[in-house]
Write a structure and sequence with these properties.
Helix content is 19%, strand content 23%. The strands form 8 sheets. A 7-stranded mixed beta sheet has the order 12-13-14-19-20-26-25, with helices on both faces. The chain has a 4-stranded antiparallel beta sheet with strand order 8-7-9-10, with helices on one face. The chain starts with 64 loop residues before the first strand and ends in a 5-residue tail after the last strand. The protein has helices at 88-102, 119-124, 147-154, 187-190, 213-223, 283-296, 314-324, 327-330, 396-406, 486-497, 536-543; strands at residues 65-66, 84-85, 143-146, 158-161, 164-170, 176-182, 198-202, 205-206, 231-237, 243-249, 251-254, 258-266, 269-276, 301-305, 334-339, 358-359, 363-366, 371-376, 384-389, 410-415, 423-424, 428-430, 433-436, 440-443, 456-458, 466-471, 551-552.
Length: 557
């Protein structure tokens, strides 16, 4: 099932190349095909495979056999689509074997007969039903996305929308949706929308309270425009209470992953600050330029704003870890060790390459070619790093925190509890749908990686996932990078005093401190509830913890 969420419409991430293939996941099984689904058109008769409990054929047996195969050339790979005539049962049996081979908790997945399920519904139940010690679902990260849309967002670096990153409060009346930031030169920025503006209505429909089907249709259509050029009338209210009526047309908006790079002269000395929104390949030169600026101006503290960074490339997170610290601090220790299920202790089951620990990469990476270059990265030689966080700080962003802690760099966490995703996956396409299922986890140089409920900022840490810092709500009354913004101000205060400031939790709204309850994370149909999820899920779709196989220059062909 494709999951949607009230989030930015311009998040992107660089990923491993995937090959598209045709058709959608297929609809519900019909009585006439015994759950097999129709084969390809043109009168072709295809015999569906048969399910036998406990017996699993190799996943390649069913791969690319599609109920509705696509033809022609994939515009992204520029290769013919690999689709062949098949049935929905082929697609389901591929999902079953693929899950049994690569899913991290494959032994906990019930082996239900695929026949009664549609393809999407069958995939939805191919995950562990178990819970964590805190009572949360053990697997919160199980999704699909239309392959063409996913490739457009990840490979092309653009997505249709307004250039708004939303901060989600509630998807049921009274709803709450606030702008966290906007992309430069985007439709939103061009009409004067800024952080802190709160959505009131769209095309006259009350966003906060409307519960009608027609109203929800308008809200969904506007927040998730299906194509560029679609125009809607919005009314926002600024943090100071001023209403803004604007008209925006959806456009292809490029992501700017690193923003607000600045050196602040503070009571704690020179503080380097940057807003880092996504671990995508596009961020590499921007991060390098930021670190060079900080090094040139001799900053003595570093604040990395990861509060809206849902993750992305692990290799990039390791590069940032190197740049923040340096070889004298790292001393050849690893950034992260990747662990697949117990069937694959030494070989990556997706790439077939031997498993090896991910280092703190000290060189620039050619991400398109997957090659580690000979160009050195700059570094700051800092033994302490401040990280600003919310529940949207996820995946590779958490790996950055964990990797630094693994080499005894002091991480001071300011803000909210992070999302809790020590897991990752290789987005995998089959028949026009890209599937996301948990395939690996990771541990740092000390062997720690169990933070499935997130890292928790604590003035006095007690548990392994507690991080020294200040639990504070997000502050929408100030712009990001402003020294008066609550989280940045607290980081500066801590750098000077070694303790957290006294701040009222009610000031400026506490949305960034609160973790979404389970009901807001289910595609439910409660009265008046928009069929939308909390914003972390779109981050996970586009910015997962992604492994890129990096070769040295000598290994490159």
């Amino acid at each position: 099932m494709v999951r949607k969420s009230l989030v930015t419409v311009c998040l992107t991430a660089a990923v491993l190349s995937v090959t598209a293939c045709g058709g959608s996941g297929g609809g519900a099984a019909s009585p006439t095909d015994n759950g097999a689904g129709g084969g390809a058109g043109g009168g072709t008769t295809v015999t569906p495979p048969v399910w036998t409990a406990g017996q699993f054929a190799a996943e390649g047996t069913f791969k690319n056999f599609c109920q509705v195969p696509r033809t022609g050339i994939d515009p992204f790979s520029r290769q013919p689509f690999p689709d062949m005539a098949g049935t929905s049962m082929h697609e389901k049996m591929w999902l079953r074997s693929w899950t049994h081979n690569t899913y991290l908790w494959y032994s906990e997945v019930p082996d239900n007969d695929p026949v009664p399920f549609s393809v999407s519904d069958y995939f939805d139940q191919l995950k562990t039903p178990q819970l964590t010690d805190s009572g949360n679902a053990k697997d919160n990260f199980h999704f699909t996305e239309n392959t063409e849309e996913y490739q457009q967002s990840t490979q092309a670096g653009v997505s249709a929308g307004y250039g708004i990153r939303w901060s989600f409060g509630s998807n049921r009346p009274p709803r709450s949706l606030t702008i966290a930031y906007t992309e430069p030169a985007s439709p939103a920025a061009n009409v004067g929308l800024v952080r802190g503006d709160r959505l009131l209505s769209i095309n006259g429909v009350d966003f906060i309270n409307d519960s009608t089907d027609s109203g929800l249709a308008v809200l969904n259509a506007a927040i998730f425009p299906a194509a560029t050029g679609q125009s809607f009338n919005f009314v926002f209210e600024s943090a100071s209470g001023v209403q803004k009526a604007v008209t925006m047309a959806a456009a292809n908006v490029a992501s700017s992953p690193v923003q607000n790079v600045k050196v602040l002269e503070t009571v704690a000395g020179k503080v380097g600050y940057m807003q880092f929104n996504s671990h995508i390949a596009l961020a590499q030169p921007q991060l390098i330029n930021a670190i060079r600026q900080f090094a040139t101006e001799n900053v003595n503290e570093l604040v990395i704003d990861l509060r809206y960074n849902g993750g992305g490339l692990l290799a990039l997170a390791s590069q940032l870890g190197f740049m923040a610290t340096g070889p004298a601090i790292i001393q050849d220790r690893i950034f992260e060790r990747t662990i697949f299920n117990d069937k694959h202790p030494t070989i990556n089951p997706v790439t077939g390459r031997p498993l090896s620990a991910l280092p703190f990469y000290s060189k620039e990476i050619d991400y398109e070619a997957g090659i580690l270059t000979n160009t050195d990265l700059p570094s700051l030689n800092l033994s302490r790093v401040f990280v600003l966080s919310t529940a949207n700080t996820c995946s590779a962003s958490e790996a950055f925190i964990n990797g630094l802690r693994g080499i005894d760099v002091e991480v001071i966490l300011i803000g909210g509890q992070t999302c809790g995703k020590p897991y990752g996956f290789y987005p995998t396409d089959n028949c026009g749908t890209t599937y996301f299922t948990v395939q690996f986890t990771g541990v740092n140089a000390k062997g720690f990686g169990e933070f499935s409920d997130g890292f928790v900022p604590k003035a006095s840490p007690q548990f392994a996932a507690d991080v020294k810092g200040c639990p504070l709500p997000d502050d929408f009354s100030q712009q990001l990078g402003d020294v008066n913004e609550r989280l940045l101000n607290a980081a500066i205060f801590y750098a000077r005093n070694g303790s957290c400031p006294e701040v009222s939790a009610a000031a400026g709204g506490a949305a960034g401190l609160l973790r979404p309850d389970n009901e807001t994370r289910i595609d439910a149909n409660a009265a008046g509830q928009m069929r939308l999820l909390d914003p972390r899920y779109q981050d996970i779709l586009f910015n997962s913890k992604l492994i890129t196989e990096i070769k040295s220059v000598e290994e490159a062909p």
